[in-house]
Amino acid sequence: MSFPHDPETVPPAQPQNRGCAITGLVAGAVVLLLLAAGAVWYVLDRDAPDNGAYDAAPECSVGETDVLDELMPGYELEFEEPLGSPQDPYGSGRQCRWAIPGGPGEEVPSAATLVVVAAPDPGGETIAEATFDATVSGQDTTPVADLGDEAVAWTARDRFVFACVGIRVSNLYAEACYGTAADYSAYGYGDEDRTTERAEEYARSVVTALPAPDQAY
User: Fold this and answer.
1) What is the DSSP letter of 181?
2) End-to-end CA distance of the chain
């Protein structure tokens, strides 16, 4: 089901910078991935690993889906950086952030983030399983059905509500998040259930946009 973006009418005041909250969200994902590295080595030392389907993580453009257009009309890519390296046990990928540009108008501040990491072979699928488990273990999660090989969702509150979905597809770990404020102050909390629904829809659109394994970047 599609959840078209319903702009809220708000006073024409300049929104405050919401970059700190969003940057913290992405940084938190990176820290969790680093912590997951220990779990990865533990698994590889004990199990016979399965190889994965992806040689590398896709570019940030995989997150620029039609759903993102609906949720955040006029969004801009604000942040795109590499994550990890082929030498890191959990693999390498990218972290990306999009937001509606600041300024007076009728759109409530909102943002989306995406982390994609491809675990290296040998044992890529086993590594991604360990990364998924270690990364989401500290969250109060709910299962998301029929999405990738496994997926869960959770919410977090900083300056406004964010909902995130962690997904594993073969040896690829992805974390898609969406958040919106209640008004231009960027301090009021939006509706948590609706934010979660939108984050799940966005996560599904990202998985659909993933290249086929033989077309992976």
Assistant:
1) B
2) 29
Helix (H/G/I), strand (E/B), else coil: 98: strand
Per-residue pLDDT of the chain (217 residues; tens, 9 = 90+): 433 444 333 333 333 344 434 444 444 454 445 444 444 444 444 454 578 899 999 999 999 999 999 999 999 999 999 998 877 888 999 999 999 875 554 556 788 999 999 998 888 999 999 989 998 888 999 999 999 999 999 998 766 788 999 999 999 999 999 988 655 554 555 578 899 999 999 999 999 999 877 555 5
User: Is the Cβ–Cβ distance between 119 and 128 less than 8 Å?
Assistant: yes
* Alpha-carbon gap, residue 84 to 17, rounded angstroms: 28
- Superfamily (CATH) of domain 19-211: TM1622-like (3.40.1000.20)
Enumerate residues 6+ apart whose C-beta is below 8 A from 196. Answer: 153, 155, 163
- Alpha carbon 54 to its chain centroid, in Å, reads 18
Q: Where are the domains of the chain?
A: 19-211
Task: Round to whole Å and give the CA distance between 182 and 189.
Answer: 5
pTM of the model: 0.77
E strand or H helix at 41, and its extent? helix 19-46
- Estimate to the nearest angstrom the gap between the alpha carbon of 126 and the chain centroid: 21
Kind of pairing between the strands at 172-180 and 92-99: unpaired
Contact predicate 151/204, CB 8 Å: no
